[in-house]
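Readers outside the structure-tokenisation community will struggle with the description of the input data as it stands. I therefore recommend that a typical entry be quoted early in the introduction. An entry of this sort, consisting of the sequence and the corresponding backbone structure tokens, reads as follows:
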Amino acid sequence: MTPMLEIEKLHAGYGKSLVLRGINLHVAQGEAIGLLGPNGHGKTTLLRCVSALHRPSRGDIRFEGTSLVTCSTRAVLQHGIVHVPQGSRLFPGLTVTDCLRLGAAANPRRGVARTLLSEVFDLFPKLAQRRTQLAGTLSGGERQMLSIGAGLMAGPRLLILDEPTLGLSPKVRHELAAAVQAMRSRIEALIIVDGDMDLVLGVTDRFFVIESGQVVRTGESAAGAGSDQIMALFLGET
């Protein structure tokens, strides 16, 4: 069976600085994978390449057999790949509900906004409580919930989350982890990067450790949980 997403010998960088050095990985339909590794070693660049926010210099990215390396961000979105980047990027002057409806504007399925809105509010009850509140007045955790909710409104087949719990309290990280686990039944595949290794391993099936722009280890997430060796790789202490 062809994987849903295939990344093969991917190289990318900025100017003369090479960041990704021949990355290979794949994501199957129904699967969630986590990307681990020290900061600055290529995880976000890889995600940006998948969503066409950054163009690789070599290699290929295929979604259900179709190459994405020359696609526009709009074309990638039309394939059903939705990227929620690091940091909540919202319109502060819009209400929670309007921000979510704006996310639905990118959904190829028309007439589903009301149903999806209800699903997002079920997933994030705090957003339901603040549906008429301006996005700019939300707490950090609520803004992150809203960013993910807007991504879900776009109807992703593959959802990409980059550092969804960055800077949040342990309590809010736990709430987001529960929401990510619950949303897996609503999407076909998930890629997540986060500084909380336990969270990543707890919501994914497999993990890839990226160091110096290369995959240095991969395995089953359940087996990696609690591993001192994985922790050392995650922190860049090898």
